[in-house]
């Protein structure tokens, strides 16, 4: 048996197992206070078996709020709201620590009319807001704010505190020579750069004696001139000599507009546990301090390896517990085959946070609406016969949700396999985890008793409507290649994947990819074909590159494309002239000729395959529903959400209004 299910004590707090939910932003807050939505979300993970929950960052001062959906602890009025969190988590058997922090220079207050604060006048990214340089009086104010927050969190019933010294937030901005150019006694030498952290921890330990207190830090900033593991070993050693740290949470990265930020939430292009070595390094150096380890630990089985090998004392899984709050219970009861796997796409978790939206999840559309879904399942429904047309993620989700609601379900798919375009995407090397989504949904369909008909096409809706009470059309969307001129073959994105994904080019054939949409479709094809030896030119008619991909993934993607020699053209259009492709920049008229272009891949807008819905007789329109790309070509996130919702409600408008955010 793995040690991962054995209890552990941290700072006098008994924790029932070695799995924790790391702090991660949800954007469920209102007016910087936790809501019932926060409580229901954390309560579901506690009920799912995790031993310890660490809250998302709780800002200690208004200058760190950034937006109203974050959580803050600036005055005593916050205590009752946070007490609801602790009570909900304790009720379901988990311990809960409060993560307290100040975001520093990246907390520009566009929403709150506050300036960013930092150690020095160095912005977090090119074009970012130049922060206010904190005076010594400001520093004293912030030290006191950390202490006040600690007292409030103790009053709210938290079992412990995690002080955030990492991820490029304010304290790390003082620690790092890459972000601290001060000339006073808070800058320069390591002792000076540590002074703010020491003062903060001194204040906290003096204000909440006896409370479990630990730190989260970045083992490596992955930045020129920044902190690396050897620097952090020295810093942690000095801090541990000054304070009785009850635990250390070893993370990595800095919040900076470069590759480093992509490591913080490593997507499916990274291997499993890419920074596992950090945990071992610090555990070897500090064997007596409980060590918490994080980063792309995809399953409990994989994560438990760190416990059993002595590399860590607890393992943190954030996205896997977003995807399946029951993951720990399922592991404990030998039901791993039932786990809904995180596919590390970053689309609905950090991708939505980047847009200031509440998090969701591609594989778990119930995220953020846990309380509402409990109520939905309790509601009695009239049992109906339901036909789902289309076996992609939308159709499979709709069929499964309808089945769970008690309806008699038939699922029809025109091809020989379930999965739709997600199955096609999974054939690309860096998008292979979409295969997990397809295989897990397919397996549930096969096991559910749903009537499944593959290789079955439907051409006439009127006959179908007479056989079923409700029809759900989930027939997806079609890629279509446009006309850019004559002389060079132009193919659509799906054809390119099928024909070229596994074909090597020995002669570096020239391929032009036209990307109107800014999604992973063009990016994945470009990376795959460049890896196969093709010389790739990506042309975007817009002024931005891959605009629909979250920054947290894009800042790793672009360096990979650059290393593969992919050439990129913004605000540009193409024209095919004989065997050549001419790329014209719309801003300055500059032309680039790609001689002897072997083909053009068109990643333009897809068209909804909605003929079955459009031809439905008006009298039957209330019984036929259209979802996913057949409703409007978007992403797999909308497909799974709408499928899950329509199955429960058989009315998409009602579902959307019912499941709306708090």
TrEMBL record:
InterPro entries reported for this sequence: Aldolase_TIM, FAD/NAD-bd_sf, FAD/NAD-binding_dom, NADH:flavin_oxidoreductase, OxRdtase_FMN_N
Transmembrane segments: none
Cofactor: [4Fe-4S] cluster; FMN
Stored Pfam families: Oxidored_FMN, Pyr_redox_2
Domain FAD/NAD(P)-binding: residue ranges: 385-626
Record's keyword terms, sorted: Flavoprotein, FMN, Iron, Iron-sulfur, Metal-binding, Oxidoreductase
Keyword check for Signal: no
Residues annotated as domain NADH:flavin oxidoreductase/NADH oxidase N-terminal: 5-337
Gene Ontology BP annotations: fatty acid beta-oxidation, unsaturated, even number, reductase/isomerase pathway
Presence of keyword Cell membrane: no
Gene3D superfamilies: Aldolase class I, FAD/NAD(P)-binding domain, NAD(P)-binding Rossmann-like Domain
GO MF entries: 2,4-dienoyl-CoA reductase (NADPH) activity; FMN binding; iron-sulfur cluster binding; metal ion binding
Family: In the N-terminal section; belongs to the NADH:flavin oxidoreductase/NADH oxidase family.
Protein name: Unannotated protein
Naturally occurring in which organism (per UniProt): freshwater metagenome
Lineage summary: unclassified sequences, metagenomes, ecological metagenomes
């Amino acid at each position: 048996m793995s040690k991962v299910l054995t209890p552990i004590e941290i700072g006098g707090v008994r924790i029932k197992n070695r799995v924790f939910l790391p702090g991660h932003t949800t954007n469920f807050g209102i007016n910087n206070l936790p809501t019932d939505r926060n409580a229901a979300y954390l309560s579901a993970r506690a009920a799912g078996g995790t031993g310890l929950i660490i809250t998302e960052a709780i800002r200690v001062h208004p200058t760190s709020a950034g937006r109203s959906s974050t959580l803050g602890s600036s005055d005593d009025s916050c205590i009752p709201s946070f007490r609801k969190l602790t009570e909900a988590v304790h009720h379901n058997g988990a311990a809960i620590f409060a993560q307290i922090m100040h975001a520093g220079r990246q907390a520009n207050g566009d929403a709150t009319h506050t300036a960013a604060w930092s150690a020095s006048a160095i912005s977090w990214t090119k074009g970012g807001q130049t922060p206010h340089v904190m005076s010594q009086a400001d520093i004293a104010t912030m030290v006191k704010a950390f202490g006040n927050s600690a007292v409030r969190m103790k009053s709210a019933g938290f079992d412990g505190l995690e002080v955030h010294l990492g991820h490029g937030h304010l304290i790390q901005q003082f620690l790092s020579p890459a972000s601290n150019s001060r000339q006073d006694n808070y800058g320069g030498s390591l002792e000076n750069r540590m002074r703010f952290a020491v003062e903060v921890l001194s204040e906290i330990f003096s204000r909440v004696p006896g409370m479990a207190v630990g730190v989260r830090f970045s083992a490596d900033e992955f930045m020129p001139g920044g902190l690396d593991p050897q620097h952090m070993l020295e810093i942690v050693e000095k801090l541990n000599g000054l304070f009785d740290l009850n635990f250390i949470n070893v993370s990595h990265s800095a919040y900076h507009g470069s590759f480093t930020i992509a490591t913080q939430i490593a997507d499916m292009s990274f291997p499993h546990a890419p920074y596992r070595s950090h945990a071992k390094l610090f555990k070897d150096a500090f064997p007596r301090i409980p060590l918490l380890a994080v980063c792309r630990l995809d399953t409990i089985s994989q994560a438990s390896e760190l416990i059993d090998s002595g590399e860590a004392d607890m393992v943190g899984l954030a996205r896997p517990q977003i995807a399946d709050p029951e993951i720990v219970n399922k592991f404990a009861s030998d039901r791993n085959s039932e786990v809904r796997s995180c596919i590390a796409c970053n689309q609905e978790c950090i991708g939505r946070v980047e847009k200031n939206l509440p998090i969701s999840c591609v594989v778990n559309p119930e995220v953020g609406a846990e309380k509402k879904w409990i109520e939905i399942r309790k509601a009695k429904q009239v049992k109906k016969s339901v036909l789902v047309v289309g076996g992609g993620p939308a159709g499979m989700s709709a069929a499964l949700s309808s089945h769970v609601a008690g309806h008699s379900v038939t699922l029809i798919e025109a091809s020989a396999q379930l999965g739709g375009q997600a199955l096609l995407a999974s054939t690309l090397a860096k998008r292979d985890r979409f295969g997990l989504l397809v295989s897990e949904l397919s397996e549930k369909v096969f096991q559910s008793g749903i009537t499944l008909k593959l290789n079955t096409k439907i051409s006439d809706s009127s006959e179908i409507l007479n056989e079923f009470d409700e029809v759900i059309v989930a027939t997806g969307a079609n890629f279509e290649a446009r006309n850019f001129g004559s002389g060079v073959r132009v193919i659509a994105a799906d054809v390119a994947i099928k024909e070229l994904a596994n074909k090597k080019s020995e002669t570096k054939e020239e391929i032009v990819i036209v990307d109107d949409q800014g999604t992973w479709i063009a990016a994945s094809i470009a990376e795959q074909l460049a890896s196969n030896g093709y010389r790739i030119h990506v042309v975007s008619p817009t002024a931005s590159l891959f605009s629909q991909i979250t920054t947290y993934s894009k800042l790793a993607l672009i360096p990979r494309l650059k290393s593969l020699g992919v050439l990129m053209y913004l605000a540009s259009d193409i024209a095919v002239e004989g065997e050549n492709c001419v790329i014209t920049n719309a801003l300055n008229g500059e032309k680039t000729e790609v001689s002897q272009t072997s083909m053009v891949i068109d990643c333009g807008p897809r068209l909804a395959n909605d003929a079955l819905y459009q031809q439905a007789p008006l009298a039957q329109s209330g019984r036929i529903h259209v979802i996913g790309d057949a409703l409007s070509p978007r992403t797999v996130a909308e497909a799974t959400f709408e499928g899950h919702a329509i199955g429960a409600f058989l009315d998409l408008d009602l579902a959307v209004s019912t499941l709306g955010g708090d």
